[in-house]
Amino acid sequence: MPHTYLFYKPFQVLSQFSPEGTKKTLADFFEGIGKDVYPVGRLDYDSEGLLLLSNDKTLTHRLLEPRFGHKRTYYVQVEGTVSDDALHQLNKGVTISVDGKQHATKPAIAKRLPAEPELPERNPPIRFRKNIPTSWISLTITEGKNRQVRKMTAAVGFPTLRLVRYSVGELNIQEMLPGTWRELSGTELALLGL
């Protein structure tokens, strides 16, 4: 029977069940789910937010296959006051390095957030530097290259400090806490737009 779970992955947790040194993994949060459930894609160790896990091979294929181009939105805290020019460049697409080759990212939807988003505090928090301002952007992409969002913000001169995947399709982590998860209902699965 197919099962799909939405997990709010905390900072410094690996997107895998198998142990790796002393790092926390998905096994620290999921007990009693089927052995055939795996993460759909990944979220870097130093990133937070929405991670789907499923044993539904069709759903997994549709979400991971680039030609389907499903939307993922990230809330990104960057170093500095993000400029209109940087947002324009992100919207057009930028060139990043992927596996040693230059890759032109697809156009994105980049917006300056008017205020810091309501997210749980990160543990440990971002290092505060009094003389360097930060700003938050919302960045929606339809591809998922390794560390793509971090590379994109760096390419326009605004290094990422904190990265939270807020939504996949119409599903989001609003009102969830890091480390919590729930099984998705049929109605919620429909929000993925598959």
Describe the structure.
This protein is of the alpha+beta class. The chain has 2 domains: about 1-70 and about 170-194, 2-Layer Sandwich (Alpha-Beta Plaits); about 70-170, Alpha-Beta Plaits (2-Layer Sandwich), CATH 3.30.70.1560. The chain is built from 4 helices and 11 strands; from the N terminus they run βββαβαββββαβββα. It has helices spanning about 55-65, 85-90, 150-155, 185-190; strands spanning about 5-10, 40, 50-55, 70-80, 95-100, 100-105, 110, 135-140, 160-170, 170, 180-185. Strands 1, 2, 3, 4, 7, 8, 9, 10 and 11 form a 9-stranded mixed β-sheet that branches. A two-stranded antiparallel sheet has the order 5-6. It is globular. The protein starts with a strand and ends with a helix. The model has no long low-confidence stretch (mean pLDDT about 90). It comes from Rurimicrobium arvi. Pfam families: PseudoU_synth_2.
